[in-house]
Amino acid sequence: MLSLNEIAFFLNPRSVALVGVTTRTEPEAYNPLDPLLKTGFSGRIYAVNPKGGEVLGQTLYHSILELPEVVDLAVISTPREAVLKVVKECVAKEIKAIIVITQGFADGDKEGQMMQAEMNKIIQGTRTRLIGPNTIGVINAFTDFHTVFVDFHRQINHNCMISQSGIFLVGSADFTAGIGLGIDLGNAADVEVSDLLEYLGNNAQIKVINLHIEGIKNGRRFMELARKVGRKKPIFCLKTGRSEVGAKAVMSHSGSLAGEDHVFEAAFKQSGIIRVQDVEEMRSFNKTFLTYQSISGPRIAVLTISGGAGIATADAMSKYNLKLAQFSPSTVSRLKKVFPDWMEVINPADIWPAGMMHGYRHIYSLSLEIVLSDHQVDAVFCVTPAYLHPAQDKLLNISDLLNQAAAKHPEKPVAVWVYGPYRQEFASILEKPGRIVAYHSPERAMAALGALYHYHHRIKPALETTEEKEPLIAFNDQKITRVKNFFYTNRKQNNAMINFPELGELLQAYGIPTVSTKEAYNLAEALAAAEEIGYPVVMKVLSSEVTHKSDVGGVYLNLNSPALVEKAFKKMKTLELNQELKIQVLGVLIQPYVTNTDSIEVILGSKKDPVFGPVLVYGLGGIYTELFKDIAFRIAPINRTQALAMIQETRSYQLLLGFRGKPPLDLEALVNSLLNLGQMVVNHPEIQELDLNPLLVMPKGVLALDARLRLD
Amino acid sequence: MLSLNEIAFFLNPRSVALVGVTTRTEPEAYNPLDPLLKTGFSGRIYAVNPKGGEVLGQTLYHSILELPEVVDLAVISTPREAVLKVVKECVAKEIKAIIVITQGFADGDKEGQMMQAEMNKIIQGTRTRLIGPNTIGVINAFTDFHTVFVDFHRQINHNCMISQSGIFLVGSADFTAGIGLGIDLGNAADVEVSDLLEYLGNNAQIKVINLHIEGIKNGRRFMELARKVGRKKPIFCLKTGRSEVGAKAVMSHSGSLAGEDHVFEAAFKQSGIIRVQDVEEMRSFNKTFLTYQSISGPRIAVLTISGGAGIATADAMSKYNLKLAQFSPSTVSRLKKVFPDWMEVINPADIWPAGMMHGYRHIYSLSLEIVLSDHQVDAVFCVTPAYLHPAQDKLLNISDLLNQAAAKHPEKPVAVWVYGPYRQEFASILEKPGRIVAYHSPERAMAALGALYHYHHRIKPALETTEEKEPLIAFNDQKITRVKNFFYTNRKQNNAMINFPELGELLQAYGIPTVSTKEAYNLAEALAAAEEIGYPVVMKVLSSEVTHKSDVGGVYLNLNSPALVEKAFKKMKTLELNQELKIQVLGVLIQPYVTNTDSIEVILGSKKDPVFGPVLVYGLGGIYTELFKDIAFRIAPINRTQALAMIQETRSYQLLLGFRGKPPLDLEALVNSLLNLGQMVVNHPEIQELDLNPLLVMPKGVLALDARLRLD
């Protein structure tokens, strides 16, 4: 994490050296001095170019070593070949902050990748921090400082943007309705998103944080910081590289690893980050959260000039978990007085007929006051047209009335959909006092109000709840020894893949019941094992090569006599003869045949992600896992609430509740298993992959019927 | 369907009577005469008001009976109480077209609903047709005729809009980038969407048809016409009232039945209608289809100023079934010459570094020409900024170059995302020559190009394919008699619900194999039936009250001895003792226990929809139907292609192909069953509901294990 001081060097430097300033000044020269001089930055500016001389009235120093002071920030835009030398000089001068604008490092060829690694080495262990390379740098609209090398329209706002692409800074008026602080991390060789989160969370000028992420390095640190910051202000994230082709393109753009999208999705969920789908949603959410303090509930009143628009709004509400407010009796009776006799007062309220009778402005203003005073209404959505230019429109222009109402009821969002040819012009007028957002459609409005509700009533409370730190598993010395032995032995024997029965040791130590399993290497052993376990039994092939035993015919269920065990054993041995399978049958496993039509089979697992570490997976077992992708992911470890949420996220959750006449299943035991598994994979980072497949969830208890673990 | 003449009376009248014109002229009077006079309509206009006198320089006739001629069109905006009288007068005068603007009919109270019914009665059997009530009427921008009673900005375009809400006409500059013909059907008491489709399909001025539908009356007729028209031009539909709350609101807005959304979804699919999600998509699709003739394939080249934007575009492409073009070797080598050495030439192509070296305008123009000439590229998506006002931006404004390139390669769409504070200004310049669409985001652009591709390469060819009219079932006299008897007998006996074994008769006649089923009313009969069928058998409860037999414990599988049959029979009788179930056990059904771990159980069914008639349903059987909603719907009958598409639409389709080592199942037999079922429900409209649940799909053949049919 960057300290406050370190951040100040980047965002609020007292002095800055622009290294690589060209002597050319025409627009195509992209002379970085020009736009900075224009914006009226009050700090000291030095320009550096080995040629020396003068440009735009500024002396050109031959090198950074020549400067009369140690500047706070060096901005390097030299050709690629010269960058490392300048970085070295900066470090030698003990300059605290470097921004490398130059492209062609991890975003370029092999040589560039090596140069970036070298760059990291140069600053390692020093007090110099570096943003970039391949960045447009920073914008601090509050102090007029920026490193953008093209002219651009600046629009200040109480938000910030950390991105991996310069367009989000320079295009911020479009994407985020302006910007307060912008940092383009580029390839994020040194400073990355987590380094800045806490600072932005504590910065009182910033009300909303925007992230554009292609990839990150330390997922857990990022989550931890996001959870902390999310309690104070919303974090919106546009994560790109979600598709396969997109992820490939990320590598050549910023040299980042895009990561698996479902893992990011889980991480965002767990850390309260609101994922925006595109730049239009980003802008709409920024405006919403910067305009409306909060929303007290999900109940929306709709005042509309058109019944059709009211219906579209109702549809959108359902989609975004908002509700049509049920008007209070007083609202109904007050509106009834002005509505035509034939018209029922309902929500959405079509005020057009009343408006035609009594005057549009009068009725709109009256209705607005009535519904805003209704204690069963949390926000009002207003539909009104822009058929003529607002200056010409004496009849249907209610911008002033809407803003008066919004001012009078600051606790209830007044959201507006103004449609028609003069939408833009009306929107500007409506939004100017900063009390109203004029949306482009009912869908956009409901998506934004839905997010506002979700943040204040779901995300924030969840982040504010202290994590339950239950000591899940009571570990006595004996258990600790068993677990230690398990890993020691398997490591020593170089067992990359561990199955039953060995794996049972570990699972049981972590409180996950496993079916009793006996190994048998010949028929006699198999028969003895079956006898001991008791009929009926299950026989499974024992072979290091097989992942899905049943796919190769390596599982026999319900063997209820020695004769059947013998037959199955002989068949099992013939698997070796199948040329296609190429497996060696070491022996068989014998287990009791646990059958219960009331139970269901689920899978529980964990897989190590390069960015986030162990990721837990839960879903319905059997072929349905693959078929329906009814699976939930979470970054481990999780708490009880999260474990339950994870299970509830799947459609198959209904099966656990007792589906169509079946008894409810042991949800608590399942939650415990998930919690224990999460604990285990965090405790033992050497676990690369672990699958309990299937885990039988019974009316009472759970039982792992098969499992496998891969060490890294 | 309206004849050409009838439509002309509405859209292109030579004379029009405005009935109910007020003597007031201030804006709040909504005097319909005023806006019509302003737009310069060249036909004869008569104003009618019982008070008489004069307004806006026009004589006010006391009644329509007083007019000097029989007008082509009467537009009624009197108070509700006066409407029916005027309609009667119009009919008496043999006026061919009436538009009723007045509200408060099916959209209002009980009285209004009765008045609308009365209105229909008045025109029934006459040569008068009626649009409305509760409508804003029509706009014909080509002839300057309209019935809109407020001032509005008109913007002409080669599209049309049939809606159930006036806002889509008056706000068309916003929703559809202008409008050529607009018809607001309001409550659609008489004229409905199907009446106009064919005319709009044949109208050469109209290139794109837009529909806003809340509900329709005759679904089949609508589909048939849409299929015909869709071959010539795209039909976009915004169907509202999709949610439960939305559907409720529809009833009070236009008095329509919103219908079940999944049924509409199926109907749209089958008739090639492109469903738009909201008004923003509607505008974007209108612009796209009116600007680009077609697109030759799904391969998109991306030229971008920002790698980050390229990635977002690649993500969006995957979502909308487009592909990143693979540049031809010639493109790669030509671009390589201007790209920096460290940079690989890939798609998306980030042209910024090359632009900085050789000039942005030069490189953009060169790259554009190179990729547009690439035969492996079907369209180009360009990302370029709007950081400064276009008039000021000498550096990055490439609007002229983009339009030149688009003009030179008219067969390949040049789509643009221009972002930044001056987006609107740039977009206007870019779109003016009518060759380019400037989108609001990469997602919007890809959604629109995806729809363009889908229409030209999927929808149109499918609509142009002649339907296969296979004589599916060879019906001989004997079969016909059997089927006739089946319905006759069941009708006569007042059997609302028909189960196995009776239902087997009908299914077999339609070529759907059913499991042999015997009824037994006492133990002796049950034992005899089991003996005859052969062990193991299945026993099911026979009771008219039970829908899901297994939910109440009314199914016993795998009974492999007389003793087990006896035990099951006795247990079955105890179901009557269960107070909660309240069922009477009439007897039991005995069937062979057909078991095959390779087979799967699916459901096949049909349900009569009030708008579309019999709707077929197909999905995975068992509890998964409910759990995963893995179900496909189609309006019956369907052809072979549609039956296959319906099955392929479900995720469980993979199970039929042979999932994880299992053999493939008999897809052909399943398709045949679907086709036969479709035929059956069309032949026998008295079938209200029919469920084959489950139908066993085996490696060879299918077999209905249970079924029920409800007559209406």
Q: Any overview of this molecule?
A:
The structure is a homodimer of 712-residue chains. The first copy, chain A, is α/β, with parallel strands linked by helices and 712 residues long. Among the domains of chain A are: 1-135, NAD(P)-binding Rossmann-like Domain (Rossmann fold); 292-464, Rossmann fold (3-Layer(aba) Sandwich); 516-593, 2-Layer Sandwich (Dna Ligase, domain 1), CATH 3.30.1490.20; 600-711, ATP-grasp fold, B domain (D-amino Acid Aminotransferase, Chain A, domain 1). Chain A has 26 helices and 31 strands. The first copy, chain A, has a seven-stranded mixed sheet. A seven-stranded mixed sheet of chain A has the order 9-8-11-10-12-13-14, sandwiched between helices. In chain A, strands 21, 26, 27, 28, 29, 30 and 31 form a seven-stranded antiparallel sheet that branches. Chain A is flat and about 95 Å long. The two termini of chain A are 29 Å apart. The model of chain A has no long low-confidence stretch (mean pLDDT 92). Chains A and B meet through α5, α6, α9, α12 and α14 of A and α5, α6, α9, α12 and α14 of B.
